[in-house]
Amino acid sequence: MWTTPFSDNGMEFERAFMKNVKRVVVKVGTAVVTRADGRLAVGRLGALCEQLKELNSQGYEIVLVTSGAVGLGRQRLRYRKLVNSSLADLQNPQFELDGKACAAVGQSSLMALYDTLFSQLDVSSSQHLVTDNDFRNGSFRKQLSETVKSLLALKVIPIFNENDAVSTRRAPYEDSSGIFWDNDSLAGLLALELQADLLVLLSDVEGLYSGPPSDPTSKLIYTYIKEKHQGEITFGDKSRLGRGGMTAKVNAAVCAAYAGIPVVITSGYATDSIIKVLQGKRIGTLFHQDAHLWTSVKEVGAREMAVAARESSRRLQAMHSDDRRKILLDIADALEANESLITVENEADVAAAQDAGYEKSLVARLALKPGKASIFFIPIASLAKSIRVLAEMEEPIGRVLKKTELADGLILEKTSSPLGVLLIVFESRPDALVQIASLAVRSGNGLLLKGGKEAKRSNAILHKVITSAIPKNIGEKLIGLVASREDIPDLLKLDDVIDLVIPRGSNKLVSEIKESTKIPVLGHSDGICHVYVDKSAKVDMAKRIVLDAKTDYPAACNAMETLLVHKDLSSNGFLSELIMELQHEGVTLHGGPRASSLLNIPEAHSFHHEYNSMACTVEIVDDVQAAIDHIHQHGRHATSHTDCIVTENHEAAEIFLNGVDSAAVFHNASTRFCDGARFGLGAEVGISTSRIHARGPVGVEGLLTTRWVLRGSGQVVAGDKGVIYTHRDLAL
Questions:
Q1: How far is CA 485 from the centre of its chain?
Q2: How confident is the model over 581-594, as a mean pLDDT?
Q3: pLDDT for residue 8
Q4: Alpha-carbon gap, residue 204 to 604, rounded angstroms
Q5: Which residue numbers delimit the Aspartate/glutamate/uridylate kinase domain (predicted)?
Q6: How far apart, in whole angstroms, are the C-alpha atoms of residue 197 and residue 648?
Q7: What integer pLDDT is reported at residue 401 of this predicted model?
Q8: Percentage of the chain surpassing pLDDT 90?
Q9: pLDDT confidence of 633, banded at 50, 70, 90?
């Protein structure tokens, strides 16, 4: 769900009621219980039982409604029929099996399996076969409730199924005259009778979609609103094996929800879907009687948002270079003109973060203050200045990178071109939004942004100010602001619309996004930056570089995390001096095996550790090659960020610079220089340790690709007859 920046769409409390849920009715359908060939899906059933056991042990009261008996019985009777068939029967194998007989045979087999699985998990279960006629009897309904209540108190899981073997209806799927018509409606009825807190309907898809789930344009509906969706959604065929399908599930869900029982339709194929639902995770489709109150603002789908950004970017690319440059200058002016408004919203974020008990370093990174820039914040004036610098840089779009004459009168050009649509997920710093947005405009890309919740108001006002400066013929939808992190999964599925994802934040964030999408991801993992001090290093220079690399901004990804020192420096007093200066600055030291014993400091639990604080690891190495080997060994988990050598030995420096396989390698300079602004890129969307496309600080060039432009005068291939290729490089 997407909203306007200043709206409160209720997503934060949309599923907050889950924390009060105790009694849950779970319905599992035939498509989940059985495989496509009709055989039992034992693995899925085992995973289901393990989930229910876990919830049972946590104090939840679980009631299970299961389908699958008819399908299982049909499979077994077919096998028995085949075994007992004569040769003549085998030559004419078509025969019909009575559905009620299938139900009778399958029910005992299904319950035997449930009993075996639950017994293995030390859980007791009970069997309850019912028909709709049973519920016409008030005494039966009362006794049913009392029996189930007693069973739940004993932590027994009651298992219900409609007794199809003795049902009096001939076409239960079509006949809607009964009290319930299938196991979906039975589950809804039981949820009401037993006063459940939640009904979970497990399906073979993730939930209710706006169209066929196989259609890439269909999107998952997280919250069903009867007034909105009832007339918009059409349903396909019923279940491949059962008699319900999504139509039956939605009907049952609507009835239960509007009677006061919240319902979630979600996948029964996932091994932890019920647990995630009860944790309040936004999976599946929620049905709730108050759902219409949570979506009072205009919604924009993920695909629509991405498509709008692409269309706007194409209009931006078609503009003259001077017009694109003017947009950037207008954005800079707008930021300065609205500085007081931006400051008010930003201060509200800072105050909220302080009240929430966030770490001081994070609170400091939130601040957008007037005045001099520091390592913790960038004032509006500095942001505006960086945008103007970006505007004055060489035009990046359409640059001819290579020009070749293929044949007489046939000229080929390789030119720079925007990537298309970028999705940037970043944390904490609202100034990142300004830098990323200005880079997107300069490079002609469409942009979707998701910032951290701690900077919600700052990001919203900055987005509003920036998009207000974009001409109407381009459209403010060039840059979209994502309202909630819960909406990211929808965007990560749009590999046909979004061209690149750049996560800018913690290693956990980067890893989660890489595991969740087919879209190329440009990002970095841990920033384990090393400084190696060689035996020929100048003492004062080495001290300055090491102290700056660690203390200038300890939380930055380009801060030193491991200090490597040549063994000769441990015996001449230099290492002791350096250690004393680091400790004097408040740096906590951890040692490798050699350094910890020599310096009497605690041994580091791992060399692969990013402190992001006033702490680092120290180790002693034999020479420059040992330093390189250490960096490669302990940077093998794809860190390869920034590494530095301090030495006066030119040969050692070249060995290090050519031997270390990192995104950035420095000689006699602090690792803190690895930054887009310091590299003269104007701004950066982040630092990449990927080996495909851009690497290191990513500025405008990292947001471009190439394309080929061929100019001819009527040439045709015609089997290459008569074409004389010259393949001659031409001057640009």
A1: 8
A2: 95
A3: 35
A4: 48
A5: 22-267
A6: 72
A7: 95
A8: 53
A9: confident
Angle at the Cα of 490 (from 486 to 495), degrees rounded to 5?
140
What 3-state class would DSSP assign to 622? Answer: coil
pLDDT tens sequence across 360-411: 767 877 887 654 444 445 688 889 998 999 999 999 999 999 999 999 999 9
Residue 54 pLDDT > 80? yes
pLDDT, tens only, 289-337:
887 766 543 445 788 889 999 999 999 999 999 999 999 999 999 999 9
Q: 294: Cβ–Cβ under 8 A, 6 or more apart, which residues?
A: 9, 10, 11, 13, 14, 223, 288
Q: Which two tokens stand for residue 297?
A: 């603002």
Tokens of 152: 């739940």
Q: What is the identity of the amino acid at 638? A: A
Q: Taking CA 718 as the corner, what is the angle to CA 716 and CA 721, rounded to the nearest 5 degrees? A: 105
Token pair, residue 594, equals 């050699």
**Could you tell me which residues come within 8 angstroms of residue 55 by beta carbon, excluding any fewer than 6 positions away?**
24, 62, 274, 275, 278
Q: Output the CA–CA distances (angstroms, integers) from residue 347 to 344, 360, 457, in the order listed.
A: 5, 15, 9
The residues, any chain, with a CB within 8 Å of residue 45's CB and separated by 6 or more, are 33, 113, 114, 117
What SS3 state is found at 147? helix
> Under a CB-based contact definition with an 8 Å cutoff, are residues 549 and 618 in contact?
no
Q: Is 148 helix (H, G, I), strand (E, B) or coil?
A: helix
Taking the model in full, what pTM does it have?
A: 0.61
In whole angstroms, give the CA distance from residue 164 to residue 132.
Answer: 10
What tokens appear for 77 in the block? 């009777």
Contact between 186 and 130 (Cβ < 8 Å)? yes
Q: Which of 65, 84, 397, 356 has the alpha carbon at shortest distance from 199?
A: 65
Q: What is the pLDDT of residues 156-202, one digit of tens each?
A: 999 998 887 777 655 444 444 456 678 888 999 999 999 999 999 99
CA 552/CA 560 separation, integer angstroms: 10
Whether 187 contacts 58, CB under 8 Å: no
- Residues of 429-467 as b/e, b for ≥16 C-beta within 10 angstroms? bbbbbbbbbbbbbbbbbbbbbbbbebbbbbbbbbbbbbb
Polymer length in residues for the chain: 732
